[in-house]
Design goal:
Blueprint lengths: L8 H9 L5 H19 L2 E4 L3 H13 L11 E5 L26 H8 L3 E6 L11 E2 L3 E2 L1 E2 L2 E5 L5 H8 L5 E6 L5 H7 L2 E4 L19 E6 L2 H11 L17 H6 L7 E4 L10 H12 L7 E4 L8 H15 L12 H12 L2 H24 L2 E5 L15 E2 L2 E2 L8 H7 L5 E8 L5 E7 L5 H14 L9
Parallel strand pairs: 2-3, 2-8, 11-12, 11-13
Antiparallel strand pairs: 1-3, 4-5, 6-7, 8-10, 9-10, 9-16, 13-17, 14-15, 16-17
């Protein structure tokens, strides 16, 4: 029989509904993958003690012929900054090493309502503030393609668990690229949805528009399936996007229209891009002429928005961690430096940042009058050694801070637009390379459809390499 953990979530859900496999069989298979690979990869940090019991209940529901949810019987990993009732949630911080929430986050409620089974929590940097997944409680998560390297972050545990078949779907969040960076490093698909499409609750910054909740999976079709289950407005959140009548699953199963106008920019952050990554991404985009797309290479320099992101991020981190101001001595250096940066942001800087963000929105609105998509490399570099907090140079150019190297993702965060990362090839060392797809406002369907087409054109086989 085919190894169940190598199948897509979409196919597994179909087989469960057709009674070809059982949720119990699938849970056993995922737990076996965890037992085999997690001691090395360190993607799962806390396992649910009730997951097998819930799988049996899911199997009984199938046998009784009950209506089944979109995700019925699928084991999912929940990022360890997302609350899970009765299941330890540490936020990657020693301050909360034994914290057990009393209530599920809204996204977890929705996953469970559609039949998903929480198998456990996935590893994160402390409070998800970092693009290399490491914390003082659980240590570092390693890249399944090369275990000496970083899996990225902050949803690094989710990406690594997906790539090794420990889970079928991963829940995550994205502030400066936390769904896209690990997706690129681990060869899976991550989607940063439009602000408000997936409400983020609970949150100390409920009105914030930088951090979003979103899906990660092995394929664009699986991401669409998960998004269908978790999207939509909620009275718990003040931010919302139109949702009624939207069909993300249908969007990826249909055919792309011919004659799409696609813009490609090789370096939106003007920080330089590793030569091999630049070549792989450019070749992948040029190859889209096979679907009769019109490709235009454009010069798009978003570096003018760099400081705006840092200031707005500082304000967001301060809002999120205001209640931790008297506990700085107990927090890690990344968290402390971010909080202190937030304390130094002036009203003048915030005013300038908001004007810059408005300029960026107008720029992209005008671009989408001419183009259907904007594509760009997700990462400027391949995965780096897991012991490093961040890469010090890109093509010999020194980075000033631990966040500079992720500018290709965080600059796009400011647009509030849907952005996906999809694998488009492998380096000579066999490491995955991700391509970012930016769509127009409320254009998740378009983004996922093109991601699906790129995956079909440039398939990669997941699995541990060494």
């Amino acid at each position: 029989m085919t190894n169940l953990t190598q199948l897509t979530a979409t196919e597994l859900r179909r087989r469960i509904g057709a009674k070809e496999i059982s949720p119990v069989e699938l849970m056993v298979a995922c737990l076996a993958q965890i037992e085999q690979h997690n001691p090395t990869i360190n993607a799962m940090c806390t396992l649910s003690e009730t997951a097998m019991e819930e799988a049996r209940e899911a199997e009984n529901a199938v046998m009784r012929g009950e209506p089944l949810g979109l995700l019925h019987g699928l084991p999912v990993g929940i990022k360890d900054v997302t609350d899970t009732a009765g299941l330890r949630t540490t936020y990657g911080s020693p301050l909360y090493a034994d914290h057990v929430p009393e209530e599920d986050a809204l996204v977890v409620m929705r996953l469970k309502a559609e039949g998903a089974i929480v198998i456990g929590k996935t590893n994160v940097p402390e409070f998800a503030l970092g693009a290399n997944t490491y914390n003082a409680i659980f240590g570092a998560t390693r890249n399944p393609w090369h275990t000496a390297l970083s899996a990225g972050g902050s949803t690094g545990g989710g990406a690594a668990a997906l790539a090794t078949g420990m889970i079928t779907l991963a829940e995550g969040s994205d502030l400066g690229g936390s769904l896209r960076i690990p997706a690129s490093f681990c060869g899976v698909v991550g989607l940063r949805p439009s602000v408000g499409l997936v409400p983020t609750y609970p949150s100390a910054d409920l009105w914030g528009t930088l951090n979003v909740t979103g899906p990660m999976a092995r394929t664009a079709e699986d991401v669409a399936l998960m998004l269908q289950a978790i999207a939509g407005p909620s009275p718990l959140s003040p931010l919302a996007q139109p949702f009624e009548g939207r069909d993300f699953v249908g969007a990826v199963t249909g055919r792309l229209p011919r004659g799409l106008n696609i813009a490609y920019c090789g370096d939106i952050a003007a920080i330089g891009v590793d030569n091999e990554i630049a070549q792989i991404c450019r070749q992948a985009v040029q190859g889209l002429t096979q679907i009769e797309a019109n490709i235009t290479e454009i010069a798009l320099n978003l570096a003018f928005a760099w400081q705006a992101f840092l200031d707005l991020r500082g304000a967001h981190v301060l809002a999120t961690h205001y209640h931790h101001l008297d506990k700085l001595a107990q927090l890690g250096p990344n968290v402390v430096s971010n909080i202190k940066s937030g304390l130094q942001v002036t009203p003048q800087a915030l005013g300038a940042a908001q004007q810059t963000r408005a300029r960026l929105w107008t720029m992209f609105y005008e671009l989408f009058q001419e183009f259907d998509y904007i594509l760009t490399p997700c990462m400027a570099i391949p995965p780096f050694p897991v012991e490093q907090n961040y890469p010090e140079t890109i093509n010999g150019k020194p980075m000033k801070s631990y966040i500079d190297w992720i500018a290709p993702t965080f600059l796009l965060t400011l647009t509030g637009l849907p952005v996906a990362c999809v694998p488009c090839g492998l380096t000579a060392q066999g490491l995955p390379v991700g391509l970012q797809i930016v769509g127009p406002s409320q254009g998740e369907e378009m983004v996922l459809a093109l991601a699906q087409a790129i995956q079909k054109a440039y398939p990669i086989k997941l699995g541990i390499r060494n």
